[in-house]
Design brief:
By secondary structure, this protein is of the alpha/beta class. The protein has 25 helices and 34 strands. A 7-stranded parallel beta sheet has the order 14-15-13-16-17-12-18, with helices on both faces. Strands 19-29-28-20-27-26 form a 6-stranded parallel beta sheet, with helices on both faces. The structure holds adenosine-5'-diphosphate (ADP) and zinc ion. The site of zinc ion has 7 residues, from loops.
Length: 823
Amino acid sequence: MQEVKTYVEIILPIAVKGTFRYEVPTHLIDKVEVGKRVVVPFGSKRSYCGVIFEIHNTSPVGFNVKNVDGILDDYPIIDKIHLEYWFWISSYYLCGLGEVLNAALPSGLKIDYSDRIVINEEHTVDKKILTDNEYLALDALEIHKTLKIEDLAGVIGTSEVPFVVSSLIEKNAICKERLISERYSPKLKKYVELENVQISDVDLNIIIDKLGMAPKQVKALRSYLNLSSFNTASVKEVSIDMLTSDAGVSGATVSELVKKNILRVYNKRIDRIIDYKGEKESLEELSISQGCAYKDIKQAFSKFQTVLLHGVTSSGKTEIYLKLIGDTLNQGKQVLYLVPEIGLTTQLTSRISKCFGGNLGVYHSKFNANEKVEIWNKVRMEEDSHSIVIGARSAMFLPFNNLGLIIIDEEHESSYKQNEPSPRYHGRDASIKLASLLGAKVLLGSATPSIETYYKAKENKYGFVELKTRFGNVELPEIITVDLKREHKRKSMKGHLSLQLYNGIKEALENKEQIMLFQNRRGYSPYLLCSSCGEATRCVNCDVSLTYHKSSNQLKCHYCGYQEVSASTCKSCGVSDLRLEGAGTEQIEEELEILFPGTTVARMDMDTTSKKNAFNKIIDDFENGSVGILVGTQMISKGFDFKNVSLVGVINSDNMLNFPDFRAFERTFQLMSQFSGRAGRRQKRGRVFLQTFNPEHEVIQYIVGHNYIGLYQAEITERNAFKYPPFTRLIRLIVKNKNEITAQRIAKKCGDELRLIFGSRILGPEVPLMSKVRGYYVREILIKLELKSSVIHVKSEILEVVSKLKSQKGVASSRIIIDVDPV
Ligand code: ADP
Ligand code: ZN
């Protein structure tokens, strides 16, 4: 009788469809389990670390299988249900399971050939307990300090590397390093404590006596002792902010105490507070309308898995979320709270940790490998630590074992969609799928829901709850359009500011209020034009004009990073009469400094926030009032809750409206409404100035009237007429090649093949707005599918056409990207 062999299907971290089959040798059969990591040979030289997807006894026919080299884990790192989710993502978004694995697993759990291994100089490993290979590896690392995986393989053999690395990491003897620069820097908060924490009461009194001449310092010290519950069993941490506001003294007073070696300052990282020891804050009492919305949501959840909360800006959606989080925790379940931008997690994190203590984890791409693994493991454990995770879209890959609720704040944000690399998933849509697999509820929140989501709510696919008033019944801001045509005719412009906006800013500054100005372009000028031939200076790699940056006197491409020193003659015709056209944030900032001397102006865009801590510093300066006017790109449009902003202005409202995309109106409305929402969030009604050449434009009118429903009805009619989502599904194919003719040829071939199957559902290939990016020519094909079509079937046909095409001669040099539900 033939013995029954055991096989496993392994997901390997490579962009190939499907899983790979290996045989499990007898000595590993007891250890094999779905969700564990294994090491397998692949190709002639390499060995890979993958995850077991399935175990079975079906012998391969027609091909040989290799053996599994070993199993890395004692326990699975992921459950079957999450693997099922990976599988759904790969079939819905048309990508390989390995690509999903790459997106899902934190890099700390992957062993990859791009890793570098670094010795931990302070390790305390007793070498006697090491295996021979571990010993050899550690020895090599002690000599070289850092080694590439390949180099380590030379020492101990390729297949041994993953085991040795994983074991030495566990023993804290080495760590892995990814060769990426981390731009993210944690937000630190300053705390104080007594220099001598064991000081006796007697000595303290002597110090206080000595300080007698400086009553403010005495006040600060007494206040510290009080806030920290000094000399009790539960000493609390005191931040400088808490201290200055409690004692009513300035930071300088605290500094004096530090200088005198009475207090000591220490930093605490506040965006990843795992364990909040301070006083717990209770939730705010909900207002009557918040209370109604809360009850309605609960009721809607009894009927619907997903509920949309449509609440105007500053209506207090966050407090409702907190209440629901509390309820979910009380049921012993976990909460995932997704936000579109990681910059916004800080304010939120500190609020949540104060309400729910050390239950919180923060997870996004900018955390380092070890921190991510830590959260991964905690979320997987049964205990109640990390019952709440705040994160960007990638947090939906965490292995929640008991998820009760997913909150998706600002659900309309396009940053929930991953564009590069594959899987090109939509964090919102994929989370809804996850919730259905795990039996959790989803709350979508927005002041300006996406048309698709609102439609689903109207069609009774989602529950629907409205919150129409701002918290504290503050009025929505007054929105004033400024007709730029007329202003230019009257010659009343002051630089890029109309007289109205200028006067508004002046008035606000006189009232000691703050101002935010939005301009959707960074740099000084988006165009450097030749007055003679009219040509703009263009990027050598991309089909765009270069932006002039004054501070560096350079022309830069915002797509590929190409830059050159600004020239004084036209490259096309040689004439030396060049002029700048249009304004970016850098120019607006310069104008404001001239127009409002004595007022500090700050600028927030990708240029000013690339350095460590710069982002937080700008926010802090604006929050504490040392900056009067903040100019910025869309970075400043969302989420922030600044108390003292009474006026916001949009320098040019037309840029986005004219964008050739079926979502241009929706996007403009969302961005302008969100940005307007930054004004007057407390007692006083805020004002918004929209400068535009088209004040009568219907979208501008909807914004002025805070008329979301008007916008929705106009959009839904258009989309129905022209067959766009939510009435169809879109799939976009993008063909890229360094040669324009090849790109066109391959795209045409692809379009023709697809047209044979799908007929008029195939549009293109077309030359997109950006016809060349980073040296690659781009062509796009759009597939519009009826909702009733069998998605899985259609998708597998598309995949087949594309893979067939890819295998043909002369196609290999082209990239063909499939983007499902493009945004
Ligand atoms: P949204 O997310 O809907 O734009 P927020 O949740 O930021 O609104 O709330 C707006 C402001 O109102 C915040 O400063 C918040 O602290 C305050 N607020 C909301 N609800 C309450 C409440 N029930 N009690 C006290 N303050 C509240
Ligand atoms: Zn470029």
